[in-house]
Amino acid sequence: MAVLSLLPCAAVVFGLAAVIAAVDVRTGRGYALGILSSLHLVITVIVVATITIAAHQQPPPTSGHTYSVTVLLVFYFSPAVYAMACTLIGAAIVAGLARHWLWIVGFVVAVAVPFLVAALPYSIWDLNTEFVVRQVGFLGVLVAPEATILAYSITRLVHPVAPARARQPALLN
């Protein structure tokens, strides 16, 4: 039953990814992917830095509710993962249409490696890996795929792919 509750979110993610891919394929350049991935990277850095600085500068109040840095970052992490998935799926569609298979492998590696860095030390060894899990894993899961998408969009800006209408054969009269 919990899987059915994720269907509207998945529909939005795949729908936005299709729109992003259509814009990039239509223009032949990586403007949509570049703008979205750079905005996501900037927002992630601003949110994480602001929450971390605010948590270290303010003494906890004596009464009332106190929120830890981890709780505040989790509220940012959930929508950020959906935004990252949206741009990642759009980039994979664009790379697949342009037959850039190595970039698709790069996207998979950019998603898998931070997850393995964050999850495996915590689950396999019972060491004090809280710092690795919280810092490297959290930031890596969001930053590595978006940085890879930004690199792909920059290469599409430097080496544009011909738009769909320009690749069609000319009609002979």
Describe what you observe in this structure:
With 173 residues, the chain is mainly α. It is built from 6 helices and no strands. It has helices at residues 2-5, 7-27, 31-57, 69-97, 101-124, 130-158. The termini are far apart. The mean pLDDT is 75.
Shape: elongated
Q: Give the tally of β-strands.
A: 0
Helical stretch count? 6
**How much of the residues is beta strand, in percent?**
under 5%
Q: Identify low-pLDDT runs.
A: none
On the 0-100 scale, what is the average pLDDT?
75
Reading the helices and strands in chain order gives: HHHHHH
Structural class: mainly alpha
Work out the radius of gyration: 20 Å
Distance between the termini: 59 Å
Please give the share of residues in helix. Answer: over 70%
Q: What characteristics describe this protein?
A:
single chain, 173 residues, mainly alpha
Detail the topology: elements first, then pairings.
Elements: H1 2-5, H2 7-27, H3 31-57, H4 69-97, H5 101-124, H6 130-158
Helix pairs in contact: 2-4, 3-4, 3-6, 4-5, 4-6, 5-6
TL;DR of this structure?
The protein is mostly helical. It has helices spanning 2-5, 7-27, 31-57, 69-97, 101-124, 130-158.
